[in-house]
Design goal:
The protein has 83 residues and is an alpha+beta fold. It has one domain. A four-stranded mixed beta sheet has the order 2-1-4-3, with no helix packed on it. A hairpin with a 5-residue loop joins strand 1 and strand 2. The longest helix is centred in the C-terminal third of the chain and has 9 residues. The protein is elongated and about 60 Å long.
Length: 83
């Protein structure tokens, strides 16, 4: 491994999934301005939009968001084709 390319500032950081309020703590060197107290210990806070606790692939709750009906048009167009 090359020397001097890895950051030296790894520390414990709390990541908060904003879609379901789940918090997990891991080591990171991400810069933060906010903090969060978890079990009486204060951690730097990084807010994330989606994590493994809310992602449809990991939760098994896949939903198709289709506002223009494009999925239905596709199914109608190709429903008669069989392999």
């Amino acid at each position: 491994m090359k020397k001097g390319i890895h950051p030296e500032t790894y520390r414990l950081v709390a990541f908060k999934d904003m879609s379901n309020e789940d918090v997990f703590i891991t080591r990171s060197c991400a810069n933060t301005k906010e903090t969060l107290v978890v079990d009486g210990v204060e951690y730097p806070l990084v807010k994330v939009e989606i994590s493994n606790t809310s992602h449809p692939f990991y939760t098994g709750k896949v939903k198709i968001v289709d506002t223009a009906g494009r999925v239905d048009k596709f199914y109608q167009r190709y429903k008669n084709r069989q392999k």
